[in-house]
Amino acid sequence: MSAYQKEYQWALSQPESFWAEQSKNIDWFKAPQTILANDENGIERWFPDGELNTAWLALDYHCEQGRGEKVALIYDSPVTDSKQQFTYSQLRDQVANIAGMLAEQGVTKGDRVVIYMPMIPEAAMAMLACARLGAIHSVVFGGFAANELAVRLEDAEPKVAMTASCGIEINKVIPYKPLVDRAIMDSRWKPERVILLQRPQCEAELQSERDLDWAEALEGVKPHACVPVLATDPLYILYTSGTTGKPKGVVRDNGGHAVAMKYSMSAIYDVPQDGVYWAASDVGWVVGHSYIVYAPLIHGCTTVLFEGKPVRTPDPGAFWRVCEEYQVDVLFSAPTAFRAIKKEDPEGELIKQFNLSNLKTIFMAGERLDPPTQEWVESKTAKPVVDHWWQTETGWAIAGNPTGIEVMPIKAGSATKPIPGYQVEILDELGEPVAPNQQGFVALKRPLPPSCLPTVWRNHDRFESGYLSQFPGYYVSGDGGYLDEEGYLFIMGRIDDVINVAGHRLSTGEMEEIVGAHPAIAECAVVGVHDDLKGQLPLGLVVLKDGVKIDDLQLEGELVGKVRDQIGAVACFKHALVVERLPKTRSGKILRRTIRQIADGEQYTVPSTIDDPTSLEEIEKALHS
Ligand code: COA
Ligand code: AMP
CB of 526 closer than 6 A to ligand 1? Predict the structure, then answer.
């Protein structure tokens, strides 16, 4: 048996013994006696009687072990032309003070804190400060509009919101305070306090008693100690797009998460404790939670927090410059970032200017890694490129090439094999496993390993109906794909109304709700069409109400504005096409998949359930004219 098979079989046949062993690698306040047990909802929970604190594991523990002087976090910000480094003891002290500041505002264990911040060290510190108090953070990506923030405020009901005066994008400053004010105005839930960090690029006005200046609020506070929590207590809620306009609050627990994070750093990424780990993502996404903040710090690495883009900050050499400057061991980003670099530096001239001898492996996730991008990065950097598949719901990779266990041969287009702890099966519509190479629903057999969500925040029914009830005994991932005869997993894309735009997960269902609310529109469909740079881009097809006269371009402009205003620029909704009617089944279901295939110029079969086949010809004409 290979090393991978051995480890995989152990996790499969004796999950409790496997995870009990892994749990010994973190410093519990009270080690768990029970490894796996069902909760009141009948959901399997890991380490239910263990006690710990995630901020302790990420900071204090390393200081206690004599590693306080090691650099914990490097901040590199080409957009503000600044750089900063924090040792473990410096980071611990700042986090303890921020925790003290939150405690003074009445935040205690179990309270929620919404964090709407750009990629600055204080964002990570705010997360860790919540963890220190046993409070539950919910980070909202800075690219989301006020409406998205309002929806999250309403669902999470935070006591405090933490923000900064602005975010900085390529050549533009985005003031956050007006967005926060509007979100609070629109939300039925009002946080008691907004703590705002002023940035010199755009200072915000504090208007009411509700608003507190971060620096002033910190003055004279007492550092707060780590509060013990149960392994099953929530560490954070992270909202992610589902099929409707209401995002799902994915709940992450403390204990399972910490154990999985620690395990992944050795098993998947093979990073030494003194290594430098760089996830070029954003703290607003799950990759940022797991691999900018928690996993590298729990492991004792140096993590890089980069406030910039792969291109235009200032050029497509940014990634390679950072890798050389900080001796990065492992780089992790989304394929779209590398496609952007490839577009602007096709020959990889800038790669040659930097010494990448320290860089061991490049990991990619967030969307399918297309073979041309994989080949380009591999050939230009001469580094192994590892695709791995995961979701906000799991918090870590479900399938990948576990380089710390065994480096398996790579197959283009495949995320390699299930990571130990995950049982990946491909099911047909009846829930029966299909033969190798046959596509179906990618499902995970329960129990899910540590770190995977145990529920949707305050909506357990949604967890059951959205993930568990379709195939009893399984979690349905929402992705379609197949396993080949050697057990390699190929993820072929979402089979629901979720699309992936530049590695950002977005709901076409939500866009349809916004577009469909326009007074001129009778009905609409939004589909994700292929884009060479961003993977997918949303495209709206709209049918006007009878008798409505409106210029197509004016309508498109209004719809683009509405989506931008309600979801955010990051949705990249730029096109809406007026059509006479939408192709439907006889029962009235819009044939979105077929529309997408037509838009992408793919071969398609006319569904047997179609109401009127000529409707497809009309769409084909409209899309390609
Ligand atoms: N705050 C505010 N606005 C943001 C934002 C943020 N954090 N992130 C993106 N936006 C805005 C951008 O300014 C842009 O606005 P515009 O339409 O007014 O120009 C819009 O959202 C789209 O942004 P983006 O998707 O970043 O496109 P881009 O063309 O500026 O850059 C890439 C293209 C490929 C360089 C960029 O998408 C990228 O770096 N992708 C990697 C994504 C990633 O790391 N994903 C995480 C998963 S691991
Ligand atoms: P998110 O929850 O934002 O991480 O998005 C998860 C979704 O992104 C998955 O359900 C997939 O559709 C897609 N995804 C993430 N990683 C990969 C990958 N390596 N290959 C293919 N799709 C991926």
Answer: no
